Give the backbone structure.
Amino acid sequence: MQMPEPNPTILSLKPRLVTRLTSVLPKDAVIHEISETRAYECDALSAYRCPPLIVVLPSTTREVSDILKICYEEGVPVVPRGSGTSLAGGALPTADCVILGVARMNEIIEVDYDNRIIRVQTGRTNLSITGAVEDEDFFYAPDPSSQLACAIAGNIAMNSGGAHCLKYGVTTNNLLGVTMVQMDGTIVELGGAHLDSGGYDLLGLICGSEGQLGVVTEATLRILRKPEGARPVLMGYESNEVAGEVVSDIIKAGVLPVAIEFMDRPCIEACEAFAKAGYPICDALLIIEVEGSEEEIDMQLGLIKQIAAKHDPIEIREAADADEASRIWLGRKSAFGAMGQINDYMCLDGTIPVSSLPYVLRRIGEMSKNYGLNVANVFHAGDGNMHPLILFDANKPGDLETCEAFGADILKLCVEVGGCLTGEHGVGIEKRDLMSHQYTRDDIEAQMAVKDVFDPNWLLNPAKVFPLEDSESRRMHTMAAE
Amino acid sequence: MLSPRNEDELAEIVRSSQDPLAVQGGNTRGMAPEGIALTVTGLSGISLYEPGALTMVVKAGTTLAEVNDALQSENQRLAFEPMDYRGLLGTDGEPTIGGVVAANISGPRRVAVGSCRDFVLGVRFVTGSGQIIKNGGRVMKNVTGYDLVKLMAGSRGTLGILTEVSLKVLPQPETESTVILHSLDDRTAVKAMSKALGSPFEVTGAACLPSRDITVLRLEGFTESVRYRSQRLADLLTEFGNAETTRNKEDSAEIWRGICDAKSFHDHEGDVWRFSVKPSDGPNLTDRLETTELMYDWGGGLIWLKSGRGTNMRAQVGKFSGHATLVRADQETRDRIGMFQPALPSVAALSDGLRAQFDPRGILNAGLMTAA
Ligand SMILES: Cc1cc2nc3c(=O)[nH]c(=O)nc-3n(C[C@H](O)[C@H](O)[C@H](O)COP(=O)(O)OP(=O)(O)OC[C@H]3O[C@@H](n4cnc5c(N)ncnc54)[C@H](O)[C@@H]3O)c2cc1C
């Protein structure tokens, strides 16, 4: 993955920048020693690393505004950062950038159960939002697997999803308002505690814009009352096709589970070896969870099991109690960890129309043979969001490149069947150069035109999302203006 | 009236047009901006419907009736429950799906499942320069690039003319039921609705109709489940008096059809306003207003009210958090007061900037959605 050459003029500005930034921030909030900036050299796409010029850790929206004003005046690129768990390189620095980390902005500003909202500073972690309201039996619905670490800031920037989004939606569906600072330091309030937008839906536009339109410092989020209960059922099938049909039949029957997770044979085998969850070894495993009171759960699972039974399952296993339920989830939840034990892996996240699941899995199998790399599939089957994990050996020369080429082919396949490059991880640098497979030049141009409005000098996270050659003239224009 | 038959023709018309264009779907909102009328009803038909994947792709000019019929045959529906404006505005014509998306029209179920924009998976549109753009797709999870889908939903044809939309649809529940509370004042009604919406019983509608002296709460799903939850909800709300429950599905549906379409405002006396606020702010706000008819939906967050002709309710209420739309009034009043809430300067600058990018010549629905 190529990144633009650092601008030598900006590199030479470092001492002045440090002075200016320390004039608006506490001393310990400006990090510029190379030994310390290294901690910010990458996110969870750790194959790519580059220490930034400076790191700033503001505590208030006002400080964020002051920082951005300085960087704007000096023409310095800024890369916003939450917890650095992006799998797409969204928070990857360039040598000539200032990393603006919101980790210290982790206050809860307001909890309002009557109106079912919480307002927080965005450095707060996803899980701690639920943590703040669960005593009252409320929760924040979007639940990315990284929820212990990832920040609401990153969730908003990536429009992150989770296992339960089939029922509750992703970040954008649970976000009601933000305070955002534009690159020139202007503070903007969008949305609030009301449920729709008066003018253009700028809030919807900000969500998923990967830190390129503004730095989001505060957010109003919807909180929901916890369901009375939840229970999963596990079922194993001899083929992907059949498992795919089961999912489709369940949805058509009018049952809307909170989660439908799918694992293929390589994934099941790895999870069994690692977590010993007691899964049946078969070609396709489904974990389906429903919510409600005991009676409601019985009723829904009854219907689901009836449908499942028509398709000759190898096994149907319903959790009898909480312990069994957690065993059913155990393997799935440790899937990534299990893979990490065996190998280095790359996690993709293309989405496909649910109906093309069997075809796509077959093609991935064929490609796996051609590339000589193994792949395991975990899949949010209800919404078509795939997570193929390609296994490779980072110490073997050329393996990473082969893995990337394989990954790119899988994502192109997702687009070919009517899906998209990324369902929840974002484009970042990882899928940047594949954008032209999903979008025409005009489509990409229309998106870049939005950035022109919010950040006319292209200083916010500039080398992400769009193919470098497409964004070049805009980024260069800024450099020339120096 | 310009009436292109397909997307390419539409793009060509826009590209070569020297004059402003007034974009229309079914024209049920009677917005009538300046310019030559251009209807998208020629772009019609369902391109793809996969019930098992809960997705439908449909051309923008397709009537809502056609969409609903197709969904009904598979026992599915548009969960965001679009309002039919004809009764309120006294317009005729057939609402189109493109018009629904362009105005982000959402009904009572918004409070539980989201608004129209939450169910749009992808769009195709023609910009003011005549370019054909697609964004999003037809899959349920998609974060590839910026979300122009949200930007287009609710932009009322001022940034681009929608030609096709992909929608997430949901199963039609087996049944529904409404729990009815009587004789609550506005504040107590909002409290009751908050309590219901904050319960685990999945309330999919919460409204208060002061003129009928009722507060209503809707439950949907499988029959046994609805029966169970209605009972539990009524028990939870005993402090608000004895709750009554609708006898059957039809009675419940009729109540919500009326709320969705703002039926109590259908007589043509006076202007109609729509306020969107934080639910608990609702009663404070209406205290400050002189109204002849009032209704709270969305648990108190959506307020419909009727005022004397030509009154500026926005000015009467003063500073508040949220926004107010003048939905029904004569042309003179609309011109004078403005239909939409003026945005703060920082937000207005961004909106104007976007409009200049997507419609540099200012020919799409010129005059609409601008501050008065
Ligand atoms: C093990 C693991 C599992 C994961 N599982 C999931 C999953 O299930 N679902 C899912 O959706 N994702 C998942 N992810 C990906 C990742 O956790 C999400 O993308 C997350 O939202 C990133 O949050 P962060 O705070 O770490 O953001 P960062 O990595 O710090 O940044 C992500 C992006 O947000 C921008 N950004 C950060 N802060 C701001 C701000 N204040 N204003 C504007 N832009 C900002 C950055 O510039 C960058 O582009 C997973 C990652 C890992 C490592």
